[in-house]
Amino acid sequence: MNAFNKTFLIFSVLFLFTTASSFAEYKVGIINVKRIMKQLEEGKSVSTKLRASFKSKEKVLKDEEAKIKKLQQDFQKQDLVLSGKAKAKKQQDIQKAIMAYQKKTVDYQKQMQKEEAELKKPILDKLSKIVDQISKKQGVEMTFEASTSPVVYVKTRVDLDKEVISEYNKKHPIKKK
Questions:
Q1: pTM
Q2: What are the b/e assignments for 133-171, b being 16+ CB within 10 Å?
Q3: Which CATH architecture has domain 3-171?
């Protein structure tokens, strides 16, 4: 082994030991955004708005579904007395109603997803700043979101949820109407 290789090997081993010892001192922050959103005052407000929006859409869909069932029942009752042309027309009407219902369902799902994203975005933006601030204050090297990137094991783990919720509610209180 030449002198260069020996020197390189020594530096590599030293680097590994110093890196390994510094990893042992790392603290990792863990947050659960879903849990935090459920406990934030603003998050609760968003949930209430989304539930109200969902219920109104759900009622419209249930009414549409009832209309379709009624069309189907009427068709079954009249099936034996209708002409071929009349049967085809009724079946076509039922099929159109079903397709309109399915389209409305998909549209409502998209609307709900968009509405949820729009309502949560400002909260998540503010939350991100608070997580940064608390992570620095707690001296953690990295903070993971538990539900999207679960950390199976960390020697020194710091759950930041309670402190994040408390700080967020303090900085961004809901204005009472």
A1: 0.69
A2: ebbeeeebeebbbeeeeeeeeeeeebebbebbbebbeee
A3: 2-Layer Sandwich (3.30)
